[in-house]
Amino acid sequence: MRRPAGCCGGGVFPEDSFASWGAYGRALLETGPRLRDRLTARSAVDVEVHAVRGRSGADMRRELNWWDLAWFGVGAVIGAGIFVLTGQEAKEAAGPAVVLSYAVSGISAMLSVFCYTEFAIEIPVAGGSFAYLRVELGDFMAFIAAGNILLEYCIGGAAVARSWTSYFATLLNHHPNDFRIHATSLAEDYNRLDPIAVVVITLICLFAVLSTKGSSRFNYILSIVHFAVIIFIIGAGLSKAKLSNFTAEFAPYGARGIFAASAVLFFAYIGFDAVSTMAEETKNPAKDIPVGLVGAMALTTVVYCILAVTLCLMQPYRDIDPDAPFSVAFSAVGMDWAKYIVAFGALKGMTTVLLVSAVGQARYLTHIARTHMAPPCLAVVSPRWGTPVRATVTMLTATAIIAFFTDLGILSNLLSISTLFIFMLVAVALLVHRYYASGETTAANRNKLVSCVAVILAASVGTAVYWGVAVDGGWAAYVVTVPAWFAATLYLHLGVPKARVPTMWGVPLVPWLPSASIFINIFLLGSIDAKSFMRFAIWTVALLVYYFFVGLHASYDTAKVLAAEAAAARVEEGGHKAVEIAGASS
């Protein structure tokens, strides 16, 4: 007897393991062997690019070029982070040295951009880092990353949407909470309900569903307006600059404050990975993606640092407003009218961030659903619009629910943990990609690679943990951990032969840049507060529960079906060749 569709699937999960209660029970009994299979299973590039992508039915339209990607990159990144978190971190964590915090975060983000760019060219599918990790680290690590990717996008979109409300209120001469509903019965960080954020997300959803190319045009029109406002902020702000504001107490909270701010301000760089998910819709990935991704990140880092300097020159860091820093700074220097231009520019920037986020997160979910780790019905691409409508609506519904309830402070810290964790995994995957090829790399070289990566991770974690717990400023542990990281990277460089050389575009200075990316990302994690790690742990446990009871069995069945189809195709191809040979000989 088949189990009802409402339990575990029916049409939602069409795999054999969910065909009936009995089948599901047998699948659960096989959890151990299936887990061992999935832990070691690695997808192939051809499978991701052709077989997995084909499960969406219609193809996404290839209509984007480097110009579209560059503006998507700028639009994805410059938004709530610079206009909201700059004031918060300058006032409470770093002082004027917040410019150094932005530089550290920017370097970390650029290293990750290099890794993403190489993968996006070689695996040009909508799955982004999820697809890269499936190929290099296997199904299980890819799933853990997938859950955090989806969390990253939902939280990031929610944070930006709530910031949108704040600047909209400023534009109308109101306090942000004037437009929020105070639900006293809810916990303090969840009791300011934000209906405007929900409306904005709904409108963005409509744009993202209708057309990727149309979204691109809308994005770069808004981004051009946004850049005009940024130029105004820099020019007008520097005209009211006082050098004493910047130099009197440049780093009042010391190095610890600078790095703590860097971890939070990494939120301001989040979004560029959404551009890598558009590789499937890019006309010439090998040419367009490097220009679009690297160019956008370089420009963004420079703009962030200049804006941070401008803000700290306008006001003493103690007087900076944590909610609307630029608007209040202009009011403080006698340019009250300018706050309306700032608020307008911030709204434009946050709108583009939401739009690019909506496009990116839907493509992540689409590819995850193609592997059946999420319900495969979410992988469908609309033949009419050429966009993943179901995935877009699903992700933005979740984003709207989070935005309606949750405070920005909780969102930004949790978002940084999730993102830094994913970027670290992508850097590890790049090392595996360059130094390991199944069937070609010897067991000895594979073991050397595993040992080097293990030492790099251990040294990075040791440095981060010591930084997080040792408030007395001692250096004893760093004398061990930093040389260990350097030695492992050097041995990987000199003692392990590369298994692959990129044919089109590759990360320079491998293994040094990916190893540095691992180190910096993990180090920044050590500067995030303990409560955020508790929330991250709860989310990870929830992911594991879903994986062991649903995702593992769905992906296992799907992998077996794919393997059977591939074997049948080989047999059929062999049969055709035999017929051709027989015909030729006769």
Automatic annotation (TrEMBL):
The keyword rRNA-binding does not apply. GO terms for cellular component: plasma membrane. The chain crosses the membrane at residues 69-87, 99-119, 140-161, 195-211, 218-238, 258-279, 291-317, 337-360, 391-411, 417-437, 449-469, 475-494, 506-526, 532-550. It comes from the Eukaryota. InterPro entries: AA/rel_permease1, CAT_C. Its main location: membrane. Pfam families: AA_permease_2 (PF13520), AA_permease_C (PF13906). It is a multi-pass membrane protein. It is found in: Membrane. Keywords: Amino-acid transport, Membrane, Transmembrane, Transmembrane helix, Transport. The keyword Transmembrane helix applies. Residues 505-555 form the Cationic amino acid transporter C-terminal domain. One of its GO terms (molecular function) is L-lysine transmembrane transporter activity. PANTHER family: CATIONIC AMINO ACID TRANSPORTER 1 (PTHR43243:SF1), INNER MEMBRANE TRANSPORTER YGJI-RELATED (PTHR43243). Belongs to the amino acid-polyamine-organocation (APC) superfamily. Cationic amino acid transporter (CAT) (TC 2.A.3.3) family. This is Cationic amino acid transporter C-terminal domain-containing protein. The gene is LOC125555597.
